[in-house]
Amino acid sequence: MKEYYDARAPEYDDWYLGAGLFAGRDRPGWSDEIDALATALAALPPARTLDVACGTGFLAQHLPGQIVGLDQSARMLAEAARRLPAATFIEGDALALPFRDGAFARLFTGHFYGHLEDDDRGRFLAEARRVAGELVVVDSSRRNSEVDEEMSQRTLDDGSRWEVFKRWFTADGLARELGGGDVLHDGRYFVAVRTAL
Description:
This protein is of the alpha/beta class. It has six helices and nine strands, in the order αααββαββαβββαββ. The protein is 28% helix and 28% strand. It has a seven-stranded mixed sheet with strand order 3-2-1-4-5-9-8, with helices on both faces. A two-stranded antiparallel ribbon has the order 6-7. It is globular.
């Protein structure tokens, strides 16, 4: 997985921006929904936040408060540091967080939780509970998928092909899976849930 995200780092935001290989995709209302998601994140109370699997910082740029980003990909972190020069970025393992207990008020993750298989989900949630008081998860909406989960084929600009485990969620289903919480966004493409840990 690390190799895939290292390779994808320079083109990762193309997915959000509808550029590159995503330029021709028919995604009605996509830009409006990204704006709505950004507004929902910006409305959160400011907090010391750990963004796990922060990628390029595309979503973290909307989070209020002090941001620490963690990712396993040095190339993703370089992209994020350019976008958010005031934030701190650390290369590390999302399933063995290199932080003391209670180090953050909030743990945020965008489009990471849906790539975790059963055992890794449990490890991630245990680590989230250990280091933060609340969890905010953004992931892909089930409304725009014919399946709950699959091994998804991904193609990069260089033509390389990768296989990635992927899940899609209803907002209520994600909230139940996380043990309850508030739905921040429930759209065609994205869901976001905030839960106390």
